[in-house]
Amino acid sequence: MKKAQEHTAPKKYGMVIDLDKCTGCGACMAACMAENNVPFREDETDKNLSITWLRVYKLTNGKKFPNADVCYLPRPCMHCEGHHGHSPCVSVCPATATDYSYDTGIVSQIYTRCFGCRYCMAACPYHVRYFNWWDPVWPEGMEKMLSPNVSVRTRGVVEKCSFCFHRYQIAMEKVRYEGRAELAEDEYQTACTQACPANAITFGDLNNHDHAVYKLKTHPDAFRLLERLGTNPKVYYISSREWVRRQGDNYLENEGKVVAKAH
Amino acid sequence: MSTVKAKDDGAGGFIILFFILGFVASMILGWIVFPKLLYSQKEQPFNFDHAIHMDMVGACESCHFFRDDGTFSGIPKLAQCIDCHQDVQGFTKDEEIFVNEYVRNYREVPWLIYSEQPDCVYFSHSAHVLSGGMECKTCHGPIAETETSRPYEYNRITGYSRDIWGKSMLGLKKNPWDRMKMDDCAECHRENGVKQNSAQTHKGACFVCHK
Q1: Which domain holds residue A198?
Q2: Average pLDDT for residues A223-245, to the nearest whole number?
Q3: Which of A131, B104, B147, B194 is the most buried (most CB within 10 A)?
Q4: How far apart are CA A197 and CA A26, in angstroms?
Q5: Structure pTM?
Q6: Nearest C-alpha in B relative to A180
Q7: Hey, CA dihedral for A181, B205, A229, A25, is it positive or negative?
């Protein structure tokens, strides 16, 4: 029945975020919420109850004027590879609702499979996972603005950033239609990447020499969050500031210069 | 002694009869009444004759085509029909309804989609038809030969089309197009080794068909 199947080299989609460029404007957060049908509440003050797939954190160096400095750090899902795809959340999920794909390197979350035990939330060291405490309620008329490419979640399931996987699915349709083998770099980009007015976010295939992320991840100032846990995340950060890089992991005060990473 | 025994036999027969009647009643309930309760029916806006169109246009792709971005157009919109159907053709009542109520008013026909999947399902026609080289018939059955549109049946609880679970209440299937459940997709994917790239199970990953 089937003859020609797609045989392409495995991808490892990842992101490099330049924290020197990030202004903390939050455009990525807004774009993400709109793109992925993320529900919101009237009162978003309690961050344990609200959902943000991509969250911008504010880091401070803790010093007084004139040495005070701030840095904004956008935090999507890190899509940890762990060892051979055994990221923290994937390893603990008893329902196989979250999984790691060897083809794309994306950690999936299947909402209809998840039964809400929240082990993955406990396992994730980055707090990228959120629980739906209620069914989403949209302001009147807004349900007509929802994207049909992303399914809406119900009460009782966990959700997280998918690197806009539906955009990959849609982009692949065109690749197949045109009979090509590979997806071009600009055909699959996440919503946050495209929304960033400062071009701080770069997205692409970390395995592909021609993609911008491939070079950026080897930048001398590149680091990953909580790298020493061995989660092997696919989101890299770049900061020229030593104090920012130090906050990327639990370094001791007397530890020397931060030299991170096994790429 | 013998009279007591005879009495026992009579009671036993009655119990067996009662059991058989109960069995028949529950079968009727399960096979005839329950499906009627579970599924509701709707008629299509008007009857569509696939066979007559196939004679004219020749292939499924003439009306059910791929767009330039690789997405599948699905059920044709008025724009595809209007070239031939500006005026009433033939003498059927359905043609009259179509032209007078829809074409003349530029109203899209609210067709009911038999094979509509739930919201959480992502299905790519291009992956199956273009890359996989599958025929339409493999999943949709011999719909091209039909002259009438059958009633659209949907589950009263879930709202999903009956084509997903299939006609058989037990979920049995003879042909690939008898059912369109996840297991049916997974079965074929397993047999053909499609995207068996899950780190957890080493089987098909969920993100292939879910969204």
Answers
A1: 14-247
A2: 94
A3: B194
A4: 10
A5: 0.87
A6: B131
A7: positive
